[in-house]
Design goal:
Length: about 425
């Protein structure tokens, strides 16, 4: 039976030991190559350290090693006999919070780390808020440095309770709390002998057993058209296919479909998958579909079931995280990139900015600066077919882009249409 893949992200405040936790996870799960470990041991010895500094396994940039912080998102790939993993190690410093959005945007699980001595701090709350906004299905609270609080069960219990209460206000339904000592390896891969009062899973055990992925028929089918295939050769003179990745749902030959934003309708006549004709395909397969009718379809159009098509609108509201150094302001002209479609848009209003300390809303801030979380109202120059983010993470999300230089400005999650 083939093993599945879990995409997960890590986040934590500066010096909470996140890179050490990731390094320990890779080392103790036998996912580190011999030459990598040898290089880490060499650098550690040159610094006068007796044991290898496992944080160096993930802090790859020179600036990261010199400053002892994580700056960029680092992706690591490893596997155990039970599951494959894609790990996005995201920065903890406040000025790099926007990088967490990148790392967690496709994650099915987020590990939020905190120092048992410091408890829940602003960055902990910020990372929890981002996980909630991105609707990451599973959240793990790793209470690190338990060795520095004498492996105290009451300390762990109080922190787990405080975080769970805050997460509940954000709408996070489920939090798995695990007490760990990344430096010594307690409860990372192997159970801790120092915390016999804890009977839950280790970090790796939870990663290996948590339910990932949804059923193929979760949600209606969506196929953003990436490319129109017209070979125009004798063998395929009349071939007209629409290639793209199925972002959700199942498609079947014979299904009635609607093409948005035009609203044209037809019937799914054929599905080509890896060069072979198939009767059925599902997310996240990449396919070429052919329709019974010759319609005017191009890149950026969306093929959907006729009975479950999303709304088409020129007005959308979204919860956003601003990621650029330059601010986002009311009246600003932007490009809006949604799946394979890019349209011109304008920022009509910025109704609020989120204050993370008490989850209150600061009304009408007028602008959003780097790392701000808020709400934005947009008007597009062309019709846009999209779902609410609560219904689909793929077709409910989009980016705002600076039309002058193509820089990404804001990551957006649609929460209102029309």
């Amino acid at each position: 039976m083939p093993i599945d893949t879990l995409r997960f992200a890590t986040a934590g405040s500066v010096d909470d030991g996140k890179s050490t936790l990731v390094g320990r996870l890779l080392h103790d799960s036998k996912s580190v190559l011999a030459d990598q470990l040898e290089a880490v041991e060499h650098v550690s010895r040159s610094r006068g350290q007796d044991a290898p500094d496992l944080a160096l396994l993930t802090d790859g940039l020179r600036a990261e090693r010199e400053q002892g912080i994580t700056i960029d998102v680092a992706y690591r790939y490893f596997a155990t006999p039970r599951r494959r993993f894609v790990l996005a190690d995201t920065p903890g410093h406040v000025q790099y919070t926007r990088n967490m959005v990148t790392g967690a945007s496709t994650a099915e699980l987020t590990i939020i780390l905190l120092d048992a001595r410091n408890g829940v701090v602003e960055q902990t709350r910020r990372h929890a808020a981002i996980a909630a906004l991105l609707r990451v299905p599973h959240v793990v609270l790793a209470v690190n440095k338990m060795d520095l609080v004498d492996f105290s069960e009451p300390v762990f219990g109080a922190l787990a309770k405080e975080f769970a209460a805050y997460a509940g206000k954000l709408g996070i339904q489920e939090v798995t709390s695990i007490p760990v000592s990344a430096l010594a390896g307690d409860n990372v891969v192997e159970p801790s002998r120092n915390m016999d009062w804890y009977d839950g899973p280790t970090v790796l055990e939870h990663l290996e057993t948590v339910r990932v992925g949804g059923r193929p028929d979760d949600g209606p089918a969506r196929i953003p058209v990436q490319y129109v295939i017209r070979p125009r050769i004798a063998e395929h003179r009349d071939y007209r296919g629409y290639a793209g990745q199925i972002t959700s749902g199942i498609v079947r030959v014979g299904d009635p479909v609607t093409v948005l934003p035009t609203g044209l309708t037809s019937t799914l006549e054929a599905i080509d998958l890896l060069g072979e004709a198939v009767d059925t395909a599902w997310a996240p397969q990449s396919v070429t579909v052919r329709l019974r009718d010759d319609l005017d379809i191009s890149r950026g159009d969306l093929i959907t079931p006729s009975g479950a098509a999303p709304a088409v609108t020129r007005k959308v509201s979204a919860v956003v995280c601003h990621v650029a150094d330059r601010p986002l302001t009311v009246g600003q002209r932007v490009l809006l990139k949604h799946t394979t479609r890019t349209v011109k848009a304008a920022v009509e209003a910025i109704p609020s900015r989120l204050t993370l300390d008490d989850l209150s809303q600061h009304p009408d801030p007028g602008r959003l600066t780097a790392n701000d979380i808020g709400r934005v109202l947009l008007r597009t120059a062309e019709p846009l077919a999209l779902d609410l983010y609560a219904e689909s993470r793929r077709t409910g999300s989009f980016l705002l882009i600076d039309p002058t230089d193509g820089a990404t400005l804001t990551a957006c999650m649609a929460d209102g249409i029309g």
